[in-house]
Design brief:
about 190 residues, seven-stranded antiparallel β-sheet, three-stranded antiparallel β-sheet, 2 helices, about 20% helix
Length: about 190
């Protein structure tokens, strides 16, 4: 599962259309699973706004650049707190629990395999999907393909289970023939 630091406003890839390709679009990106089970990103580095290849001040302006930097630092700090809490409690827990509250274990995954329950989220808009991905409704079920081959739902979980901000629902899909791993996100 991947939980990205979300942009301060909008979707990942929303401001970097010139770097999109057939495997990346607004709110969608893909990897190839290598023979040694590593992710190989199928997009361009410029897809990510925070890539070093961008002139961030020109892209966003001084005020927005400073706000974005603060936001990312807060995300990093929250992630660090989540790691520390896990090391202390051996639980995937809410970092915002106070010391006197019982620490409740979050689920590592909310759903695993089977049919996607979150079929009507904002991630399911064909407007944003990369060219290699196709979404079709058939008999009240969303069928998703990558280059014509079925993508299977592997897992879904809210980002906040991992102690930081992020998507309300991280969706992980997989196409086993070409070993393509696809991520998309629901934002409420």
């Amino acid at each position: 599962m991947l939980n990205l630091f979300e942009p301060l406003e909008g979707y990942i890839g929303m401001n970097t259309h010139e770097y999109h390709n057939e495997f990346t679009g607004e709110n969608w990106f893909a990897f190839k699973l290598t023979d040694d089970n590593q992710y190989e990103f199928l997009g361009n580095e410029g897809y990510f706004e925070r890539s070093a290849i961008h002139d961030h001040k020109q892209m966003f302006g001084d005020w927005w650049f400073d706000e974005e930097r603060k936001h990312v630092q807060e995300c990093k700090d929250d992630y660090q707190k989540a790691q520390e809490l896990f090391a202390k409690t051996n639980k995937l827990a809410n970092i915002h629990s106070s010391d006197d509250e019982e620490i409740v274990q979050n689920d590592w995954l909310d759903e695993m395999g089977g049919d996607l329950s979150e079929q009507g989220g904002n991630w399911a808009s064909p407007t944003y999907t990369p060219k290699a991905i196709d979404l079709k409704w058939q008999q009240d079920k969303l069928n998703i393909t990558c280059q014509g081959k079925p993508l299977y739902f592997i897992a879904g979980v809210p980002a906040y289970h991992y102690g930081c901000s992020g998507a309300d629902w991280i969706v992980l899909l997989y196409e086993p023939i070409d070993k393509i791993v696809v991520f998309t996100f629901d934002w409420s």
